[in-house]
Design brief:
56% of the residues lie in helices and 0% in strands. It is built from 14 helices and no strands. It catalyses: a 4-hydroxy-3-methoxy-5-(all-trans-polyprenyl)benzoate + H(+) = a 2-methoxy-6-(all-trans-polyprenyl)phenol + CO2.
Length: 271
Amino acid sequence: MSVVFLPRVLRISARALGTAGWAGHRGCSGWTSDGGPGHLYGGHIPTNPVQKALLAVGSGMAALQNPYRHDMVAVLGETTGHLALLRLRDRMKSSPEGHSILKERPRIRLSTLDLTEMSSLPDGSLGREYLRFLKENRVTPDSRADVKFVDDEELAYVMQRYREVHDLLHTLLGMPTNMLGEVAVKWFEAAQTGLPMCILGAAFGPLRLSARRLQLLTASLGPWALRNGRRSNCVLSIYYEHRWGQSLTSLREELCIEPPPLSLSTLRKTT
């Protein structure tokens, strides 16, 4: 089933995913709560509980059918994640660094990254390895969808921040962007955030793995990801923009994240 089978009013809302932008994107990195009458922030689409439920069902089915439908994964996360977002927000507020992030509302976008400076950082530093990850995988932080269906301005920012640090988690965890790497990151995120979207991805993602990759996940990567997701400090409470020069080893130790059990090259070659 696809999102096209949703009622017309919800199809209109779903199409808005590709057209409504963040009016709150002030300059390079700002955020504003002024979304106009009836809107909590720029790009916000008000929905009632029934609409949210239908969006959740339709987007969930579409995402299960095609995990690379990031727009549907985004809708699923926004329509099911309220309680988890509350807990994440509270964890951020309990940390001085996380509190600063909630107050200042930084954005991780190409327009906010000093690519020249990051490329001059030493190998092994967060900024250099993150930039290498973006280049090698031909991805950009600008591809992350803007939040639209979260009916709380502060929680909407928490969800946006989660999306924009996702590629940083790949870097921190040493995971590639193939299906095995994505599932391992989802297992970490499920344990770390409790977001239903992540739990769903962690539960159903393995069904798309080859026998060899499934063996690696269940025997090695999965237990490592769950263990570290549960015990590590809140990954949303790190002001990464102030940490580009810090070594990955040091940041992993600070967050209580063990080094990955398999090398990146091995994970990429596994079929």
